[in-house]
Amino acid sequence: MLRQGRSLEFCLFLLGLAIPAFEGCPSDCVCYPSPMTVSCQSHNFLTIPEGIPVDSERIFLQNNQISLLLRGHFSPSIVTLWIYSNNLTFIDPEAFRGFSRLEELDLGDNRHLRELAAETFQGLVHLHALHLYKCGLSTLPSGLFRGLQNLQYLYLQDNHLGYLQEDLFVDLVNLSHLFLHGNQLRSLQPNSFRGLVSLDRLLLHQNRLQSVPRLAFHDLRQLTLLFLFNNSLSELQGEALEPLAALEYLRLNGNPWSCDCRARSLWDWLRRFRGSSSSIPCEAPQHFHGQDLKELPADTFRGCSASESLHQTHGPRLPPRDHPPLLSSTEQREGAAGGHVIQSGQRPGSRKTLKNCTKSRNRSSRPASLGPWKSAEEAQDLKHQPNLGLLPKPKGKCPRAPVLPPSGVQQAAGGGRSSGDWATLTFHAAVLVWTLALVVIFR
């Protein structure tokens, strides 16, 4: 009996050696390992809580009252940091120095965070999602996104941005989603989006845009979705849209369009566009008020000079084909009530090269409008993200095997019968023959 007790003690001793002691956890927080996670959300913390384990990879501090982020608050082992919906007013430019493992940083909904130093995000070479929505930002300093070659999702919507410097995004060669809607942008620069060679979606709606330069989108050859609705655009040169060879979805409604000679190049480009586009209701001249620019006849621009029209017409417009809706059913009803009809068709240009379908770019999946999913245990906190509506899913990413009807259906459609049908008929015929035979024998 004594020997068995000593054996049990020895086993427990070995088990203690195999499992390291669990480090402390900050008060009012919940911690769990593999990976080391610290969850401190919704506790009205005024400062970063003390006692966060140095090997923490995921730290959740959303929905508190934290006002400062200083160097030394976190260790470089961190991979995910959520500190949205706090009271941040200042971020030390070196707060994330050496955080080369950081992949997702959510600083959104900090409405008093009105400026950032240019070097704030330097060195975050593995960052793939950066959330800066609803932060009261009025300017973005040159070099703010320098070196972020792996960034894929950038959320800048619902700030007070009135200007984008040229080459601000030039290093973001892997960026696929750029959200700039709900700001105060009045114009774009020719090189505002230079370098965004992988961009798939660009949302610029609900700004104050009055003009778009001819070269504004010259690097966006992979863009499939462009939203420019609810701005102050009266004209847009068709030449500005020419580089968008992969474009599938375009929304231009909610602008005061002038459907005079200045609209000729846009009208001509739309005749050749095979993607899905919104209506473009004319504001002026008065005799075209309320009409859709796309539906105006060719003789509307017959008297326009060559300088006013950049392109010539290219034959009749082809009938559109079906596309997924740009909006949810509710938004579609609202749009129909306001005359904003979404039409669909084929997109121009050649199809993009298919991506490698055996390897995902992200560790997990998430609705395209929101970027990569946060962990399942924090899924309930996704409601903090602004509602972007139902954006269409990207097309042409991975081929899908066609779903064919059952073989019996195919044969029936061709006038023949399936093997199951023949088996049934044979069975019934055999029963009939045996019945007749029995009647003859016993008569």
TrEMBL record:
PANTHER family: ANTIGEN BSP, PUTATIVE-RELATED (PTHR24369), RETICULON 4 RECEPTOR LIKE 1 (PTHR24369:SF196). Keywords: Cell membrane, Cell projection, Glycoprotein, Leucine-rich repeat, Lipoprotein, Membrane, Receptor, Repeat, Signal, Transmembrane, Transmembrane helix. It is a lipid-anchor. It is found in: Cell membrane; Cell projection; Membrane raft; Membrane. Residues 375-384 have a biased composition (Basic and acidic residues). It comes from Pantherophis guttatus (Corn snake). Residues 1-24 form the signal peptide. Residues 308-399 are annotated as: Disordered. Residues 349-364 have a biased composition (Basic residues). Belongs to the Nogo receptor family. GO terms for cellular component: cell projection; membrane raft; perikaryon; plasma membrane; side of membrane. Residues 255-305 form the LRRCT domain. Its main location: membrane. It comes from the Eukaryota. This is Reticulon-4 receptor-like 1 isoform X2. The keyword Calcium does not apply. InterPro entries: Cys-rich_flank_reg_C (IPR000483), Leu-rich_rpt (IPR001611), Leu-rich_rpt_typical-subtyp (IPR003591), LRR_dom_sf (IPR032675), LRR_TM_domain-containing (IPR050541). The chain crosses the membrane at residues 422-442.
